[in-house]
Specification:
The protein is an alpha/beta fold. The chain contains 14 helices and 19 strands. Strand 8, helix 3 and strand 9 form a beta-alpha-beta unit. About 60% of the residues are buried. The mean pLDDT is about 95. It binds zinc ion. Zinc ion (ZN) binds next to loops.
């Protein structure tokens, strides 16, 4: 099968490319890139007026399999990804059972190959059952092909245990993805601790809980000379510590979510559980610091932390509702609307954070457009205006803080291994 993507503005940050360029795809791989390419008999995708980027990667999602298929499945989650312009996701191990041994990884890989509409990478647990006590079967899971290790959703409390986990992961050339919230400080908290939580009379989760966790794990990364990746960073001090760690030459990377770069704790005033998430939406000074971190390269990757729940659970009263919400179908629109069209962050920086940066952190062969590489492409209409309507989501999760917002900018097509899996919002597989 031959596909010619014609006339698009190719933004390919890994090789500093930003120019009008055609891309010829044959048998799932990029065959040629250049101007005025012709291929008799090829299917032509007219990308004139659109941005053509390497396939977007979201390295932090929860597909909820195995075990929680009422919340999401590989089928529905990867369709949601395709709809949002995401070609590849890394799914977290806080499932039932926990992804803590090779046989579960192998089962997930089989399912992903057969039911996935986009590519799925698997993150293995650091500890058995995420209990933070015994190491999971990290070696066997590395052999089975996990891309990273994480106890995401929980902070690894025991310092010595975390030190061993970091050393062990690096033996297999895998990174630890670190959920940073010191437990004693956040216990019982439901939102960011600050003026708004005081006014609402809700127990907060203070920024210093994240700061302490990030500080410890940067120190451990330095002491063990191993890499660590800070998940969903959300505080001023945490961003600053990662900045200084990078300046020192440590192997520290970080990711941020659209919600932490766009929304603040002011959204919680109506006690609406759609805005409840861990780490919490914080005050505007923290939000601005996270955006600044993305602009200056302190923050490498943009992720959604896509966390679908059943509607009945999320519809509970605020204190009882679970944390987290979906993001795959709103990520690109939210970021283009609030970070690009406002002039805050340039397009190359944003696209790098969805492509070359996460590929490098995970050590996967993706995130760049070049002859011979897998033909994963995200095609974007920068000026498309649309209203977020969660009832139309492909995801089983319908709870999103962005519902009913008007966005400017949307993925126009998602191409995986040379096959158009989404066009104009419609998933074709
Ligand atoms: Zn997390």
């Amino acid at each position: 099968m031959t596909l010619l993507v014609k006339g698009g503005r190719v933004i390919n940050p890994a090789v500093q490319q930003d120019e009008i360029c055609d891309i010829l795809i044959e048998n799932g791989k990029i065959k040629e890139m250049g101007t005025n390419l012709n291929a008799p008999g090829a299917e032509v995708f007219n990308a004139a007026g659109l941005v053509v980027a390497p396939g977007f990667i979201d390295m932090h999602v929860h597909l909820r399999q195995p075990g929680q298929s009422a919340k999401e499945t590989i089928g529905t989650g990867t369709r949601a990804a395709a709809a949002g312009g995401i070609c590849r996701v890394a799914t977290m191990p806080n499932t039932k059972p926990v992804i803590d041994k090779a046989i579960i990884v192998e089962g997930m890989k089989y399912k992903a190959e057969h039911e996935g509409v986009v590519k799925v990478d698997i993150v293995g647990a650091i500890s058995k059952e995420l209990k933070g006590q015994e190491l999971a079967a990290m070696g066997a899971m590395a052999n089975a092909g996990v891309v990273a290790f994480s106890d995401d959703g929980r902070y690894v409390e025991d310092c010595d245990f975390m030190r061993k986990a970091m050393e062990y992961a690096s033996m297999f050339h895998k990174v630890i993805i670190d959920h940073c919230e010191e437990q004693s400080l956040v216990a019982g908290g439901t939102m960011h601790e600050g003026t708004v939580s005081n006014e609402l009379g809700l127990k907060g989760r203070p920024a210093v809980a994240e700061d302490i966790a990030v500080a410890r794990d940067i120190l451990l990364a330095e002491a063990t000379n191993t890499p660590v990746h800070i998940a969903h960073i959300s505080t001023k001090n945490a961003v600053d510590m990662v900045r200084r760690a990078k300046a020192k030459g440590l192997h520290v990377t970080a990711e941020a979510t659209p919600q932490h770069m766009i929304l603040t704790d002011e959204a919680l005033r109506e006690y609406d559980a759609r805005f409840k998430v861990n780490p919490p939406l914080r005050s505007d000074d923290h939000r601005q610091a996270v955006v600044d971190g993305l602009i200056d390269g302190t923050i490498d990757a943009i992720v959604t932390d896509h966390a679908p729940h059943e509607w009945e659970e999320k519809d509970e009263e605020f204190n009882l509702a679970p944390s987290g919400f979906v993001g795959l179908e709103t990520s690109v629109g939210a970021v283009l609307t609030y970070l690009y069209h406002t002039g805050m962050v340039d397009l190359t920086t944003l696209i790098r954070a969805y492509t070359a940066a996460p590929a490098k952190i995970l050590g996967i062969d993706a995130g760049v457009l070049a002859p011979g590489r897998e033909a994963d492409l995200t095609i974007i209409d920068l000026d498309k205006e649309w209203a977020v309507d969660s009832t139309t989501f492909y995801s089983k999760g319908k709870s999103t803080p962005f519902d009913d917002m008007i966005f400017k900018g949307k993925a126009a097509a998602t191409i995986v291994d040379g096959i158009v899996v989404m066009k104009d919002g419609e998933v074709l597989r």
